[in-house]
């Protein structure tokens, strides 16, 4: 029986709720409160948090990969530096900068290369003279710089016979200056030492001034800028091929008394690089036949290798590793020109030989 005084009947009582229904009711009540986020906003917030987490993870993974790559590069660079005594990264950066200046001067404003060549010659004479003076030789720096600048700077503007006259005058100038300076010193220097100083004075001008002037003479010819660029590319290919092959496979020393780190494997790599570069440069830059490109590459290989070994012999005689430290990773300016200077002879000779053949074909 139902109590009549009970305001609610038995059918009006709430039915028991499940836990899920209770949770849904609670979330609905919380959502109805002022300032509570809507379900869509909560879902967006969860998605944003997940995206940020993924971005942080990706960034962390990228940073770890960069750090690992940097560590691997530094380890490889240290191994190369230990074996060759060169900083690979600095060498690459400086080489790219020099290459950009070289290309800009040759391809866009031809006469600017004259400034480039003149500066390189003067710096080379300066560091060579300083190295010789440090070994006890008497070298007159200012006359050497003046003579070298005149020999290289005038080669672009004068005829061939007048260039020879200028060279002989420059040689006489440095020789007479050295003899007069020696007589004025009254230091009792022996005749053999004085003769050695005179020979060194002439050698500086012939090695740097004269060979550098041949490059400028080649530049002054019709299409000469392409020949200058071409033989420098092949000479650089020789150095690069020898370096890579020597580092990777070098076991048999080529000239241990002159340069212990040069190997026959490196020379084989240089030969391969020289022939490939010679053919490509000859056919696509200079308009030569393929066999002319092979000859071009082989002759530059011979002169570049001889120049490299020759400068190594000079440095060993002077008891130094590099002519200077002006170019980190490379040494001095003359250390970069050791294979290029002798190659000017081969390049100018081949220009006179091949240009008429190409023109007549």
Note poorly predicted spans. Answer: 1-15
Q: What structural class should be given to the helix and strand makeup?
A: mainly alpha
Q: Could you give a short account of the major beta sheet? A: 2 strands, antiparallel
The number of helical segments is 12
The level of helicity is: over 70%
By DSSP, the count of extended strands is 2
Rough shape?
elongated
Report the mean per-residue pLDDT as an integer.
Answer: 84
How many domains, as an integer? 2
Strand content: under 5%
Order of helices and strands: HHHHHHHHEEHHHH
Distance between the termini: 129 Å
Walk me through what this model shows.
By secondary structure, the protein is mostly helical. The protein has two domains: 88-220, no CATH class; 222-361, no CATH class. Helices cover 76% and strands 2% of the residues. The protein is built from twelve helices and two strands, in the order ααααααααββαααα. The chain has helices at residues 19-31, 39-84, 88-107, 112-134, 141-154, 160-185, 191-220, 224-249, 264-284, 290-318, 333-337, 340-360, and strands at residues 253-255, 259-263. Strands 1-2 form a two-stranded antiparallel ribbon. Helix 8 (224-249) packs across helix 12 (340-360) and helix 10 (290-318) runs antiparallel to helix 12. The radius of gyration is 37 Å and the shape is elongated. Residues 1-15 have low confidence and may be disordered.
Features:
361 residues; mainly alpha; 2 domains; two-stranded antiparallel sheet; 12 helices; 76% helix; elongated
